[in-house]
Here is the input.
Amino acid sequence: MDLSGISVDLQDNTKDIENNVENNVIETDMEKLSVDDSSQMTQDSEQKMNVLITLIFEVYRVLMGSMLVLFVPQDCNGSICTIQDNFNRDDSGLTKSAFALNLLTMLAFVVLYKIEVSREHLLIDNLDVNPNEERTNEKVGENIEKLDLEIKNKIWKYDDYYKNTGYTCMGIFGLNSILSSVVIFNHYLNDKTITVLLTNLLFMGLKINEVFTIVYTEKNIFLSAFLTRKVQFNDIDKDKLN
Here is the structure.
């Protein structure tokens, strides 16, 4: 019996088995990476879709909450005014002034939403919502050290932009509410006037409150501005790790 031939065959078979095992391990690792990447892309896509859906409602809110002179029911010779009546009223320019402030308020909130959406996309693209990670300022601070310095600074800057624009919107909104209310109550119609006015003011007041709830946190606490439940971005996207 040729024992040397048997030994060679056994060695060859052993190498084949080892190669097959190694290949299977590599394929399994690649599959896991593929699943992780797919899961990450799905979470990011879902979050961005939620931002878009929420933004549609926000556009309605800023329109109704800013253009008070046009959309709050008012009296025109015993009947409800049309939008054209509200705009073309002859009252020594008071209504026109209020309308101009309405437009300025809307513009300010459009800028706020632009910053808000940019901030949200920046967080979605670079951070992650990880329920298995701590959400403390210190722990999130450790995690974001894994990001490039430029991205970290950009995230912090957008938080500052967001807060400062929120202050600006609050001031303009306050002036708009006062001047518009003077015009509206000079042409009071009925209970609908008060109801619609208060509802629209509440829309915008709640928005400003949301902004300050989001930004008045510790430096590394990044709350979502759009997701239905105020989630916190507390980890790094896997594809952003250095």
Summary: The longest helix spans residues 3-66. Residues 72 and 197 are 6 Å apart (CA to CA). Strands lie at 75-76, 79-80, 127-128, 222-223, 232-233, 235-236.
